[in-house]
């Protein structure tokens, strides 16, 4: 072999190694990247029940969340790191400490709690004005649809003035945390959002 052939062989091997490393990196990045999601809403909206319904497909006994719960949820090879944040009045001021790198905000609304819907609207629009959430998509879950006289997803959308939100992608989904109704569609929407971005 000539010196030129040896040099060419060396660079070919180096190039093949680089290409293999690049494909490994892309595989890890696209197939194993976690997408950060936060679940927020007023107290007693059903946030923790929804988190564990996502995870186990079962209703679990919960207590009011003081601080947060975090779980990893996989939806057809798309992985979400989901933070469920307490909704009591004293905890809402700390929501912003979870905003960094959030891709999806899930706002859980108690569809029977008409009296506090204005407060929910204020919290939502305050969140969306935050710089760290400027690229986040919003999923509104109209929970407790199994209860008689609960508001429909369309009513909640209107009360929260979702149609006025032009800076974020958003979707409203009727659901029941206890039965899991509507939650599969929610996960599908979340997956479609992160794959589209």
UniProtKB/TrEMBL annotation:
Mg(2+) binds at residues 48, 65. GTP binds at residues 41-48, 87, 143-146. This is ADP-ribosylation factor-like protein 5B. PROSITE patterns: ARF, RAB. PANTHER family: ADP RIBOSYLATION FACTOR-RELATED. SUPFAM superfamilies: P-loop containing nucleoside triphosphate hydrolases. One of its GO terms (molecular function) is GTP binding. NCBIfam families: small_GTP (TIGR00231). Belongs to the small GTPase superfamily. Arf family. The chain crosses the membrane at residues 12-33.
């Amino acid at each position: 072999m000539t010196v030129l052939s040896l040099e060419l062989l060396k660079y070919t091997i180096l190039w093949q190694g680089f290409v293999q490393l690049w494909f490994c990196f892309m595989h890890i990045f696209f197939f194993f990247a976690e997408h950060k999601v936060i679940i927020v809403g007023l107290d007693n909206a059903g946030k923790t029940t929804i988190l564990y319904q996502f995870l186990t497909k079962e209703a679990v006994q919960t207590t009011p969340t003081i601080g947060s719960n975090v779980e990893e949820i996989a939806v057809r090879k798309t992985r979400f790191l989901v933070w469920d944040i307490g909704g009591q009045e004293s905890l809402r001021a700390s929501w912003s400490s979870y905003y960094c790198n959030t891709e999806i905000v899930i706002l859980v609304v108690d569809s029977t709690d008409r009296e506090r819907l204005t407060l929910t609207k204020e919290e939502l629009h305050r969140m969306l004005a935050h710089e760290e959430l400027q690229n986040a998509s919003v999923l509104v879950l109209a929970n407790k649809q199994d209860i008689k006289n609960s508001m429909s997803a369309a009513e909640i959308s209107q009360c929260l003035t979702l149609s006025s939100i032009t800076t974020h992608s958003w979707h409203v989904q009727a659901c029941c945390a206890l039965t899991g109704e509507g939650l599969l569609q929610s996960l599908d929407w979340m997956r479609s959002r992160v794959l589209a971005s």
